[in-house]
Request: fold
Amino acid sequence: MDMDYDAIVIGTGFGGTIAATRLAQQQKKVLMLERGTWWVTPEQLGKPPQNAPKPIPQWAKENNQPLQYWPRPDHRDGLLDLFAAIRHDANRDGLYQYSIFKQAHVLTASGVGGGSLIYSNVTLRPEPEVLQSIGLALGDTEYKTAYDWMASFRGHLNKIVTKIPLPGRDVSNLGPDDYLYLDRSRVLKDAAAAVSAKLGVATAWEPLDLSIIEYDPERGATSDAAKAHTFCERQGRCLLGCLPAARHTLNKTLYTRLLANPQSGVTLSPLTEAQHLRRVDGGYEVTFRDDRDDGQEKTVSAPLVFLAGGTLGTTEMLLRSRDVGGLQLSDALGTRFSTNGDFGAFVLNTAKPVYSTRGPINTCHVQVKFDGVHMTIEDSAIPSMFAALASTLLGVLDNFAKREAFRAKMLFSWTFKALPDLRDFFPQLPDTYDPTSFQTEAEMVSNIFFFNVMAQDEANGVFRLNRNRLDLDWPQPVAQQPVFAKIETLLKAFTEEMRGPNGRYAAFPLWQGLANRKLVITHPLGGCPIGATSADGVVDALGRVFDGSKPPGSTDVLPGLYVVDGSVIPGALAANPTLTIAAQALKTVTAALP
Reply:
């Protein structure tokens, strides 16, 4: 049968964008399906760069592309704006997909640019031992290719651990100028050295490589800041959308490198959520829901299909393709889900101020092997929008009555998408003799340090469809996996080095306080794992989908069907997964499009 396109790319995250750029280079006619909308900053550049394409809002209006703006007010009223951007059945154009499962909650994105819209910009390579332990065959060549693609299609990486840009300086060691470090970066640096000496484990502190534009006169007119007329303003809200537009998000890549050029051959269809696919003569037919047309189901076809809907999206679509579309797939579909060891915790009342609202979301990290487990510990910002909520919530968790009252308020606000009234927890009149009265958002969390941790879990979660909805569970309670106890042991050692006289360790509230040992996962992996054969994987090492019609143990694949997102990663990376997902996607696309 005649095909509508040369290729269909489902999703616009890292794998989808990589596939689209390579397909465009081969002059293919490509359709990209994206369930979300465009999200951009409402702030306009005072002086646009010369020869820049028209602004995205203008282009979107001219091309009938739905566009929304980041949640903005950087105080507690901004939570209303945030709630309005949460995706659910009655708000299908929301940005934040917050999936609640029995044992864990998973945060993903829904928008043009995929996960890059809400991630912390970290570009980090996992330890080789970790990759070897999960059987992921990526080495120097694959990672160099990924770094090169990032630099070419996004921009230069920068280390941002200081309060102001320091062009040309080695920010790993500022010596007598360490007062220029962001306070939380310096506190983690000092704690790492102390913990290393006490526990006898290597805890080297390093600034993170961030996909953020920094002021850089060293490169002159060729610097990203000079070309884009912006740089990081340390607003601490990367996950909520960068108002100065200093992040290298993929919506910019798609627009400037593909969509702004009518000759690229790439068409983007937003608010179109792929439901399932089935084999047809010559390729595949994809059925999608068109939310621009009252949710009507429509179909398109192509000989090549690249699945890039993310761990949850791709796994759900393939499960539905098996059950509804009759696509024969490996029995490993839905298995090897990994939490990536995601874990959050706090130090309350740090000895030295950390001012958690300032700086990028993550600035620095410590990679350590503790009790046989690889871990990455990062600092994390608390955006000003959450400052009142965070300081209030963490302050009441030790008081049962207040905790229960707060839990009720939060449940009401979540149910009705309304801002909880926090005035019960604050004095009503300012007292100018008391510095804790009527604090700024920065002051509210000035002595609260937020840990962001990733580690090696058992990667044994299982996805299934339950009444046509994705469900996630584990053979045994995931909270009982030993890795989380080891994480807390190490974090408590860091807490001892960071806390003041009244300081203490506090786990993330859903782990202890508002719920009982529930995880919040921001780096979901697996579901369509790489395997040597169809007996233990859904795809092979090149991302080609195994043909489930053949006996288990076969290496035969379905022609023209590829997975290029985090669902193929067969276990925890114990690090931010972006670079690894890009490296694997490039490996797949290079093999598919020689």
